[in-house]
Amino acid sequence: MIQVGDKIPAVTLMEYSEVEGNGCSIGPNPVDTAKASAGKTIALFALPGAFTPTCSAKHVPGYVEQFDALKAAGVDEIWCLSVNDAFVMGAWARDQKTGSKVRMLADGSADFAKASGLTLDLTARGMGLRSNRYSMLVKDGVVKTLNVEGPGKFEVSDAVTLLAQAKAGA
Question: Is 95 within 8 Å of 83 (Cβ atoms)?
Fold first, then answer.
């Protein structure tokens, strides 16, 4: 499993954009994690699936609500990763009203989840291989904090916890 001090996996995620701008065309666009995190502080959180109860009711809304505070604490971008396709992540972004606050990134083949060692096997529940629920503060591509949830829990990967870590200069 990825540890504090490790570089995040260098994989390509996909991001759905509904409007053109800043080099992004409409539709799914590749996001190279190494390039996209270079020189930035990223509040990254991952979860088992789009539109799932805890993820939709608590996880994503918490990061949307804490956007200004995270920015004030030195976070450049907030990334939400899920093992879903870019179209689902785009629809979920609309539903959650993330706007330009949270980048909803699709890890469709679980490449990031597998490379980080943070997978969750939900095959028995009909969901296949997913991402575990966690958060991390990433500076210039390096993990500075890592908060991995226990099975079925939502206690340490929330926005308030990551905000406290960002404020502490992690």
Answer: no
The one-character DSSP state at 153 is: -
Structure tokens at 16: 């759905």
User: What are the tens digits of pLDDT across the range 37-46?
Assistant: 999 999 999 9
117 in Cβ contact with 23 (< 8 Å): no
**Residue 4: inside a domain, yes or no?**
no
**For position 22, what pLDDT does the model report?**
59
Active-site residue (options: 44, 55, 73, 110)? 55
Q: Is 80 a catalytic residue?
A: no
Residue 5 lies in a domain: no
For residue 156, the 8-state DSSP code is S
Domain around 72: 12-167
The band of 128, judged by pLDDT with boundaries at 50, 70 and 90, is confident
Residues with Cβ within 8 Å of 152's Cβ and at least 6 positions away in sequence, in order, are none
CATH number at residue 125: 3.40.30.10
CA distance 75 to 9: 19
